[in-house]
Write a structure and sequence with these properties.
By secondary structure, the chain is of the alpha+beta class. It has two domains: 17-177, Deoxyuridine triphosphatase (dUTPase) (Deoxyuridine 5'-Triphosphate Nucleotidohydrolase, Chain A, Distorted Sandwich); 189-244, no CATH class. Helices cover 16% and strands 27% of the residues. The chain contains five helices and 14 strands. The strands form four sheets. The chain has a five-stranded antiparallel β-sheet, with no helix packed on it. It has a four-stranded antiparallel β-sheet with strand order 6-7-12-10, with no helix packed on it. A three-stranded antiparallel β-sheet has the order 5-4-13, with no helix packed on it. A hairpin with an 8-residue loop joins strand 4 (69-73) and strand 5 (82-86). The longest helix has 20 residues, at 194-213. The radius of gyration is 23 Å and the shape is globular.
Length: 256
C-alpha cells in the first residue's frame, strides 16, 4: 500500500491529492468548470455577475460519468425499487446498493491526501438535477485503503433521471481536518465596530440609490447595469484587495 503524501499542508506549500485507479482505467476527472447551462441561459448571462457563485463552481474537481444512464425509482424502500438502464452495460454503472431511493455510483479510485486532510465529496456544485439530489460526505483519505461511493437520493418517483456520458456525477476537494472545530463563532452588534458600521451604511445607501436609478433611462446605473464593487474586490472608498480572486486556476490531474 502506498503511503499518504507527506508534504506540509498549512504553511502555503503544495497540497497533494493523489488518485490511484482501482480498475483498468482511471476515472475521468477534470477541474470543475465555471460554466453552467442554466447560467448561460439567464438574460445577458447575468448569473455570472455573482462572483461567489463563480468561485464555488470551479472550487475543485468533477468526476464524470463513464456511460449514459437512465435511472428510475418506484418510490419504494427496497433495493429493487430502482431500475438502471444504460447504453453501455460494460461500463461501471450506478446501482441500488442501500435501498430507500438512493442511487450509488462506485468511484473506481482510491484517493490519498496529506496527513490531516480530508476529502469533501459532494454533487456537482450549482448544477441542479430534476428528480434527484446529490448527497454529501467528508472522507478521511489520508490513512485508509478504502474507496468511497457517490450517492444520489431520488426526490420524485416514476421520473426517469438521465446521466449522460461525460456528465459530472461527483465534485470533490481537500479540506483540512478539524478546521471547522477550531472556529469560534460569536455574535457582535454591528454598532460595536463603528468603522465597519459606517462602511456598511454607505454600501447599503449606495446600493439602494443604484437600484432606484436602474429604472431611469440614460442614468449611469442603467449604463453600468450592475455594481462591480465586490467583483473588483473594492470596499467603500477603498482600493482593490490584493488577495481578491475573480477566478480559480485549478490544476488538472496528471499521470505519473
Amino acid at each position: 500500500m502506498t503511503d499518504a503524501p507527506q508534504s506540509a499542508t498549512h504553511d502555503g506549500s503544495a497540497m497533494k491529492l493523489v488518485c490511484h485507479p482501482t480498475g483498468h482505467a482511471a476515472p475521468e476527472i477534470r477541474p470543475a468548470p465555471l460554466e453552467r447551462d442554466w447560467m448561460n441561459a439567464t438574460p445577458d448571462r447575468f448569473a455570472y455577475r455573482c462572483l461567489p457563485l463563480n468561485i464555488a463552481n470551479g472550487y475543485g474537481w468533477e468526476v464524470l460519468s463513464p456511460a449514459t444512464v437512465v435511472a428510475t425509482w418506484t418510490g419504494g424502500a427496497e433495493k429493487a425499487a430502482i431500475n438502471v438502464a444504460s447504453t453501455d452495460p460494460r461500463a461501471l454503472l450506478p446501482v441500488s446498493h442501500f435501498g430507500s431511493g438512493v442511487l450509488t455510483f462506485h468511484v473506481p479510485a482510491l484517493f490519498r491526501t496529506d496527513p490531516g486532510v480530508d476529502l469533501f465529496v459532494t454533487g456537482p456544485i450549482n448544477r441542479p438535477k430534476d428528480g434527484i439530489h446529490a448527497l454529501t460526505g467528508i472522507v478521511e483519505t489520508d490513512w485508509g485503503a478504502f474507496t468511497f461511493t457517490m450517492n444520489w437520493l431520488f426526490t420524485r418517483p416514476h421520473h426517469p433521471v438521465l446521466f449522460e456520458t461525460g456528465e459530472p456525477i461527483c465534485h470533490l476537494f481537500p479540506l483540512p481536518r478539524g478546521m471547522i472545530e477550531r472556529v469560534e463563532p460569536t455574535i457582535v452588534p454591528l454598532a460595536a465596530e463603528p468603522e465597519l458600521a459606517a462602511a456598511h451604511k454607505a454600501w447599503a445607501e449606495g446600493r439602494k440609490t443604484f437600484n432606484a436609478e436602474l429604472g431611469i433611462a440614460g442614468s449611469a446605473a442603467r449604463q453600468a447595469k450592475w455594481q462591480r464593487d465586490y467583483f473588483q474586490g473594492v470596499g467603500h472608498g477603498e482600493t482593490a484587495r490584493p488577495a481578491h480572486r475573480t477566478r480559480l486556476k485549478v490544476k488538472p490531474f496528471t499521470l505519473r
